Amino acid sequence: MLLTEKTLSSKDIFNGRILHVTHDEVELEDGSRAMREVVKHPGGVCVAALDDDENLLFVRQFRYPYKEVVLELPAGKLEPGSTPLENGKRELLEETGAVGYSYITLGQVYPTPGYTDEIIHLYACRVKEQRESRPDEGEFLNVEKIPLMKAAEMVMNNRVFDAKTQIAVLKTAMLIISGKMK
Description:
Elements: E1 6-15, E2 20-27, E3 33-40, E4 44-50, E5 55-63, E6 68-72, E7 75-77, H1 84-96, E8 98-109, E9 120-130, E10 141-147, H2 148-156, H3 163-178
Parallel strand pairs: 4-9
Antiparallel strand pairs: 1-2, 2-3, 4-7, 5-6, 5-10, 8-9
Helix pairs in contact: 2-3
């Protein structure tokens, strides 16, 4: 089996500031047809920034869809005209005031492949300098430092719910344990 689906038609349902939703008709492997709802997203970036004391910089912010404050690593939407790494450096500085160096890619994740094309680029870095944070207009957050191994334990004990944060924390911990990140 080739495991492919051919798009037969696509209808725009919603076109917003961040998301674009389509309703597509596809032809399946066996020739039958099915409908797909697709959320198109520009992609995102997430940065695990470690200070000299092996603390990760986190942000807590209210996330409207969940109606709660969520603990996350600094992250944001990809902006046109700049690379994922440039976006990551910008988000880290805006949200935490930190300037990073020695960036390492942690790869990419597909957060919800069943209905969106979003790709999140993950990075780890060291903190070179701490400045004042400058969140975007309408963005309110608290910055906090959590020791890396405590953060990994929090992930394993289901105290960190954000998927991109879980992945970046655990990958960063593995890099430190293996000696691949100094």
